[in-house]
# Entry
Amino acid sequence: MTSTNSQLGQWLFNPFRFIAGGHALLLGLGILLASGVIGWLGKTHFDGVIDVHSGLEAPLWCFLVEGLINWICMAVPLFFFGLIVSSSSFRIIDVLGTQALARWPYLITALVMLPDANRRFSEYIMSKLTPAAQTPAISYADLAIFAFALMVAVFMAVWMVALMYRAYCLSCNIKGTKAIITFILSLIGAEVLSRFAIIRLIT
# Structure
């Protein structure tokens, strides 16, 4: 039982020990596309490396491209930082593949954001910020569903960042202070770059 639990924990929190390279890339891209389709159904945008917003209608391709932009904006800086600070050689396909796979928690986020209650509550909040807007009616059930979705989304964001860090350390063979500092710099830069790219895409 202990061995089974340990292996399950590895799959959940460090799957890159079992799958990497081309297999991780294919699986990760599949997850990105699935997240985009589900996001489109629920009007949930992943409009930044770790950002999630709901309510804005857009064509399907926009939701799909958002996921790809977020992935590339994170993977590329990590690859170049890896070239600088890693003392060993590594493959770019491992970086790309593991970073794509690391985004799988946002598939769960897309699913919990599907109910219309999330959209209604988001519209309610926006109406409160805009005095001239008409305030939509919401129920306690809408509030409960939105609160649950928000908690799940926050947890999934933390989980995803942890996975991206583990993927970076393993694929580039980096650890310690160098790994932490370069990962944080990459995350901040990728968040800014992805937001800018997606805003330009939408407008």
Remarks:
- Residues 18-202 form one domain.
